[in-house]
Design goal:
Number of strands: 0
Largest sheet: none
Number of helices: 2
Radius of gyration: 31 Å
Strand content: under 5%
Helix content: over 70%
Order of helices and strands: HH
């Protein structure tokens, strides 16, 4: 009787490990991929913001250097 219980316990633990470890591996890989995607998106957005700031600064210089535009900007 003890052998039957031990066998059932062993099969149950083996099944749990056999199903749980691959699921855990897939879950962790998806998490890592999501973090990489978010970091790439953040870098893309930072580059876009820097480009917009440079464009705004260039327009400010154009307005300051052109007297006709500088008077209308006031």
């Amino acid at each position: 009787m003890l052998a039957v219980y031990f066998s059932i316990l062993l099969v149950g633990c083996g099944s749990a490990l056999g199903l749980g470890l691959p699921w855990l591996s897939v879950h962790l890989e998806r998490t890592r991929q999501r973090e990489r995607d978010q970091a790439a998106e953040l870098a893309r957005q930072r580059a876009l913001i820097a480009d917009h700031e440079a464009t705004i600064e260039a327009y400010r210089h154009i307005v300051l250097n052109n007297p006709e535009l500088a008077l209308s900007a006031l």
